[in-house]
Specification:
By secondary structure, this protein is an all-alpha fold. The protein is built from three helices and no strands.
């Protein structure tokens, strides 16, 4: 790795561990990991037209602001 700029909390060792995890993972394990994320409670994943994303982001920002109040 020639670029030594890592996000806060990351270093070369952490990057190597993450890469190793995904390189050793079988297809079945990868699918199971992906499916587990979507089964989490309190969130929903939907497909929407890209042009609606600015409106959706604004609605989410308004929701977060109201929830903090």
């Amino acid at each position: 790795m020639t670029n030594q700029h890592f996000p806060t909390g990351w270093d070369e060792e952490r990057v190597r561990r993450v890469l190793s995890h995904y390189e050793k993972q079988t297809d079945e394990e990868a699918v199971a990991e992906d499916e587990a994320v979507f089964k989490g409670k309190g969130r929903t994943v939907i497909e929407v037209p890209s042009e609606l994303m600015p409106v959706i982001r604004e609605i989410i920002a308004q929701y977060k602001t109201a929830a903090r109040a």
